[in-house]
């Protein structure tokens, strides 16, 4: 018993620095930011409380409202596009094609890049002066127009293209590992019944990949909420505020406008958004584990 207590005490002391860092660095700074959001702090923190004035100002700010709309559009299309394309790529590789490892590496490689590199690549590709539009026109199609990146109404979709190009590889790997865990007997039974291959994947394989795709969707959603570097590298938030996102709004108000109170209010709203996104997923996992324990 004493040896067991010693091991437990040693483990506690080993984890003590991590606990201290979590409490003071993460939770402490988060609480400090929430406190500042209720003050009129500018470049220097202030103790002059103004209640919810910063939040009222935040949600009256057209730039902040535009950023919320943009992140919703980007998030829905980015997560949905990555899940759809990743599943299709996984299904293609699951057919045991030749050079599978090469294709798997090619499809996963964009995910290894930073969002800054991805944003710059797509900025160059979509630039009307020397990108896809200029290349196609040089081939003789002078009327070809593909200037979405400088079009207020379409610019956010170019960011979606870049995000899906990078993130689909992650979904592909997770979905492929799930597919390889499905028994061969199901395939044999479906083939004996004459079910087409595409129908097998959508009606039999896809429902069994629910947990894997849910985990992928959660990882991608977390990335959506904190999207910043992709926007800065690809569009800079423009044209105008057409690709502005909450993280960029917060950073601009913090470092350029020196409006610490408003930036803290935006950061608090962003943290609450993360909690609202993660909580249902964690609750579902806990309920599933509890049901399994009951049986």
TrEMBL record:
This is Binding protein-protein-dependent transport system inner membrane component. The chain crosses the membrane at residues 12-32, 71-93, 105-125, 154-179, 200-220, 260-285. GO terms for cellular component: plasma membrane. The lineage of its organism: Bacteria, Pseudomonadati, Pseudomonadota, Alphaproteobacteria, Hyphomicrobiales. It is a multi-pass membrane protein. InterPro entries: ABC_transporter_permease, MetI-like, MetI-like_sf. Gene3D superfamilies: MetI-like (1.10.3720.10). Residues 68-281 form the ABC transmembrane type-1 domain. GO terms for biological process: transmembrane transport. It comes from the Bacteria. Belongs to the binding-protein-dependent transport system permease family. It comes from Rhizobium freirei PRF 81.
